[in-house]
């Protein structure tokens, strides 16, 4: 296990499967995730053809905020989804 794996596994909401997906899209540390943000990271995951649900988006944001994804405010969840969908539309 790499240093990045260990660091990412310490974040809330992220398990080994999630960390492997993050590594596949170039996210190897908290700093990588922070630099890209939850929405862009999620967009990259989806762009690789990986079937990720909205929960993955919420989990990424929760990892950045150090909260369980289910504790995110409904308004923030809606904003994340809107941003992810809008970015996807502009990339098409």
From TrEMBL:
Q: Which residues form the TfoX C-terminal domain?
A: 7-82
The superkingdom listed in its UniProt entry is Bacteria
What span is annotated as the signal peptide, if there is one? none
Checking PANTHER family in the record gives: PROTEIN SXY
Record protein name field: TfoX/Sxy family protein
Give the species: Exilibacterium tricleocarpae
Q: What is the lineage of its organism?
A: Bacteria, Pseudomonadati, Pseudomonadota, Gammaproteobacteria, Cellvibrionales
């Amino acid at each position: 296990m790499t240093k990045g794996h260990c660091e990412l596994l310490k974040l809330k909401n992220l398990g080994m499967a999630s960390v492997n997906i993050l590594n596949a899209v170039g996210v190897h540390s908290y700093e990588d995730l922070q630099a890209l943000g939850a929405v862009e990271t999620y967009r990259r995951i989806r762009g690789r053809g990986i079937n990720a649900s909205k929960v993955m988006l919420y989990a990424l944001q929760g990892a950045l905020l150090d909260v369980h994804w289910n504790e995110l405010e409904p308004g923030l969840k809606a904003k994340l989804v809107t941003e992810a969908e809008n970015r996807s539309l502009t990339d098409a």
